[in-house]
């Protein structure tokens, strides 16, 4: 009987530990929350198989609790996902984290955790986060959403102290274009075989972020 | 030769057909502008629907450059048809009115007379394209402003404002060469057919067949590269992201050579024919 109570105690303790939020993630979130607002210049390079676009630049303005604002004199396409530096998307609804240990990426040891939302309203299905616990910042993340597919983010920082990245690479799945025939150029060839093979493609957007103007709390 | 050119330019300037042609082209432009104003955003939304799932768009793609590109697309059928009707008239009207015999009774060399007709028809064609470009430019940029151009040619190609305008100007120049080709075809057909209505039908048929043959794969590289229906889309090649400039230049040169050859053919046929 005592043995059974002991096993039950261990199990409950394990469950409790598993369902708490990772302390390192909370530290990163706390550090990110220190940023009250910032503005920066983003240089975008889009790599999608069926899109040809020159390098573009845009101004980004962020204020805590508000939607990120972009402005550009050119036409720019900005990813809907991948610019949520404040982790507000993850922290919007309750979740649990599961520790997956450490992995070495580019010579750096990164802590890996899974984020599992516990609220049905969350758009997030599962997120895998790779954290640099020494520098207290996010390095990589693989996000699976309920409705908008999956995407991965890779971040680089200009210096050890920086909290905001100087380079972000977002990889995402993108459906092929469904162009009505009357939009096609006269000599546009329709290769059905090729079109079928292009049903879903992987796109990548590379963002260089410079000229940060950060206001801390 | 100078007096012949002057006489021909007077004829083309005085005939009502010329102004009907200019009016028709202007009307096409207006219709494109009105359609773009009311439906342009919906059409673009439809075109970029998939991308909107993954991206925020900042900036407007419905702008003067897109309108210019849409107007350029009237070079496929509408504009050449109007031009062929008007330019063939420079000869068929002379046959119909019987003025050709009167002119030939003067000390006018037949080849010079015919050459003057070709030269004036070519000048008129170039004038129409310049008119079309300037009028569209003024209307499109004043109503819709500047912006990046998006074109779908196998891939979705985006061009920045300055680059887009540069390409549009070159496309009008390249399109003008294609229009000159159609104009020489219509006059050459007029030399052979003589009757206005039959020449118009033959010109329209030529236009339709040329457009159909553009998509046909002839199997032989030389034919695919240098047969005239394969050259009339040269202006559109300026909107490929990886632009093959030498190929565009050579296509235009070959099209000019075709036009000159047709002129020579028309002059030779006219010279050998009896006037009557």
From TrEMBL, chain A:
Signal listed as a keyword: yes
Top-level taxonomic group: Bacteria
Signal peptide range in chain numbering: 1-17
Keywords: Signal
Name this protein carries in UniProt: Outer membrane lipoprotein-sorting protein
Biological source species: Olivibacter domesticus
Lineage: Bacteria, Pseudomonadati, Bacteroidota, Sphingobacteriia, Sphingobacteriales
Automatic annotation (TrEMBL), chain B:
PANTHER family (alphabetical): INTEGRAL MEMBRANE PROTEIN-RELATED, MEMBRANE PROTEIN
Keywords of this entry: Membrane, Transmembrane, Transmembrane helix
Keyword Translocase: no
Descriptive protein name: ABC-2 type transport system permease protein
Keyword Flavoprotein in record: no
Transmembrane segments: 20-38, 66-86, 118-144, 164-193, 200-220, 248-270
UniProt organism field: Olivibacter domesticus
Superkingdom: Bacteria
